[in-house]
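Q: What would this chain look like folded?
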Amino acid sequence: MRITMNTTISALAIGTLLAGTATRTAAQQRDDRLVRVDTLESGRIVISNPDAPLTGPQGAPTLIEVLRIGSLDDSCDALGYVTSVTVDGDGRIYVADQQANEIRVFSPDGDCVRTFGRSGEGPGEFGWLAGIAWQPPGHLWAFDAMRHRFTVVDSMGTVLATHRLQLGITGTLPRRLWVDTAGHLHFWFPGFDNIVKYATGPGLDSLALVSEPTIPPDPRMRYTREMGTGDSRIALEFVIPYAPRVQWTVNSAGNIWQASTSAFAIHETTYAGDTLRTIRLDREAPRLDGQERDSIAASAGIPARRLPAHKYALETIRSSPDGWVWVATERGATGAWEVFDERGYYLGRVASPVPIQKQPAPFFGSGMVTGVTLGELDVPYIVQLRIVRGG
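A: My prediction, written as structure tokens:
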């Protein structure tokens, strides 16, 4: 595999991203509330939103469940451990089931069309099916975390190409793949902490590489505990609960949205290291205090004073093809997203009719959100939610 490095983004430093002299160029007024749009000397645009929806008479978007796939029997739609979901241009839904090492294909109406893949080492077989992504016009990429290889198939499951990778050691699963609107595949290289952008088509020619956005390690945000039984003890290092970290995703333009969990400021950066936009929401992270603070400290076995003063301002970032940004702020399954439109204007909190699992990551398509929800006995179901814009 050939990798060409253009440039890299250094470890995320929020202070650096927010530094600079702002030249105010525009202020948009809607519903007597002010959205401020500034342009910095670097050319970066900063959109500052008040903590109130600016949707006007149209109202906020809503989500409506329109499809549910899953069952308790032994049929095709009885799902095991779902590691990834994606949707093609015709609305077919592809589900990666790691428990069976199988990809299941469903029609837009939810009917099981076909399955392909199985456990094994041969072409089209998987040791640990850890992620899939649809690449127009007709390529489904599947990543095998055990064999460290990509398999490219068409919608019928015919193997078009196989690419073996040289990866570092990591236990992080599942693996995320992104395809932007230009058809480029983006993949996070675990172990090397890089994100690589590839050309279109079933080949694996790299176009750019960038370091994964991170916050430099802070010894004050780590602690050590001895664990074990009997005479066997081992010292393990842990990260303090609510220590700031970086959340990021690749958007439809092929750029990277990234943010520190400690502040509601999301930055769009390129592979070349340029920051194009910052979207801010005037909202402080919730405080971590009282009984909750004491309980978390006791569970970690550290003094409460070592915990940060605040919880996370945001938990995950997702992006849809229309340029909207979807931000989850709650831990566990997602019950609602804070949504910003393609201009970076805050549209409000959009509730989901069912809790959507953060892993596997929901797929945001054109007008639809496809994700996994858990039913009784934690049985997984694929659900599709239609995005109904206000008005």
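The mean pLDDT is 88.
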